[in-house]
Design brief:
With 146 residues, the chain is an alpha/beta fold. 40% of the residues lie in helices and 19% in strands. The protein contains 5 helices and 7 strands, in the order αβαβαβββαβαβ. The strands form 2 sheets. Strands 3-2-1-6-7 form a 5-stranded parallel sheet, with helices on both faces. Helix 2 (37-55) packs across helix 3 (72-83). The radius of gyration is 20 Å and the shape is globular. The termini are far apart.
Length: 146
Amino acid sequence: MTTSLIEAEASNPATVCRLHVIPPQRILVTGTSDVDPRLVRDALTDAWHDLTMIYGPAVRMVVMHGDEAAGAVAVARDWAAEHGVSEEPHAGGGIYRHGAPVARVPAMLEHADMCLAFIGPDDRPAQATARLARRAGIPVRYCGTA
């Protein structure tokens, strides 16, 4: 019994066409409590637009943040809820405790695909997060504060 080339290739798992699934794109938001909300909303909308242009309209965006109650994170949380975007809060204290990074920052950076940094003049925690993201090879967009 002979098999055709098509049948032979279809039986080989290495040649079977597999559906390409785009993983969720996680956007880490870090920043000051004194930020213009329009700036945060515009930066998130730009990031969403860029992701849809690269991956198509089916891309899933996740907003990651440190679960602060005010500032850039609060605006990002509201933006995510308004646009039906998932959010991934990582609760914890400030970025440094006794001179060492808090465990939540490396955990967030492990899964982040991009970082939006809204850094004020004396915002050392957000500066440190952006610096760690850059060192980890994660693209950082510095978005300002006012």
